[in-house]
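Re-run with default settings, no changes from the original entry. Doing this only to confirm the output is reproducible before filing.
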Amino acid sequence: MTAGDDLNHSHAHGHAHDHSHGHGHVQGQGHGHSHHHVPDVTEDSEKRVFWVMLLTGGYMILQVLGGLFAGSLALIADSGHMLSDTAALGLAWFGFRLAKKPADDKRTYGYHRFQILAAFTNGLTLFFIAGWIVIEAIDRLINPGDVLSLPMLFVAIAGLLVNIIGFVILHKGDSHNVNMQGALLHVLGDLLGSVAAIVAALIIMFTGWVAADPILSVVVAVIILKSGYGIVRKTGHILLEGTPEHLDLGEIKDDLTREFPEVLDAHHLHAWSLTAERVLLTVHVRISKETNIESLLPRINSFLKDEYEVGHATVQFEYEVCC
């Protein structure tokens, strides 16, 4: 078994021993680990991202040509977004590929965290895309140009169909994986961009008001910015090893003392995420010397797994109050 393989196995062990300290008390400790198998990134998720990447990249070329021909900022801005999305989807795909590499002595948890880095990077790119669109829109409002509404409409409709297909493909994948969520947000931004381009084309076609093109582009930019903030906030929290949002550490402490009479106190409780699906936890548990650790440890591990979805728990037993 390689280092880190225990992430995918469930086992428990414990031991206790006494040792004297110069400050005049005897302390006992026991250590236990519960490693609950969490399904790895599936081939299905990887394939979904790969095919949507090809689909997005192919349409991006058509959209650039159509935007230049029609003189539409909405199309050109959306094609710039799709260029970033193609790269973002490629990064997400690479994250899935890398996460499948086995753990080793230097990376005992494997490469799963790279998915979070990929999603974080994808979220940041949405900020730059939104800023670029706003700058271009302001310039277009100050210096309006001619827009060919009919070609713009046809290209935007084609883009909408492509983005709907891509969105459906990704939406049917693992919705809890933040790497997949990051890829999905990029495609969703493209879909909204296509809708904005269609609306702008129709307005220009029937009213001749060319300002609709940059104005609707700004609306899309605001939506993109909001999506980017959401994914950056979530992945940043994971990278900072923040407490998973679904966990209440105070509640876990209370539950341990309430569910297990042998537990006198639970403290030094820490919880964080390797990925959004993989939760890790450590806790110190104070017990009496008469407690059977071999019996208590697996019950605590099972409780944490079943009640709080903790896949990797480290429990340290103590006979006296921890300094």
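Confidence is low (pLDDT under 50) at residues 1-41. The helical segments are 43-70, 73-99, 113-142, 149-171, 178-207, 212-239, 249-259, 293-308.
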